Amino acid sequence: MSLSRVKVAIRCNICGEKFVLRGRREKGKIDTGFKQCLCNNTLDFEIQEVAL
Ligand SMILES: [Zn+2]
């Protein structure tokens, strides 16, 4: 199994908005489909995997 479902907490380092998303972990990378924050920030995030 190389795919596992994870929950991911994303915090925007620009405005501080938090998002909790479901994603998939694939070969050490987490894919959530998250594109950008409400403040149009697309790059500067703190991403944490949350235990399900
Ligand atoms: Zn933001």
From TrEMBL:
This is SR1 protein. It comes from Paenibacillus plantiphilus. The lineage of its organism: Bacteria, Bacillati, Bacillota, Bacilli, Bacillales.
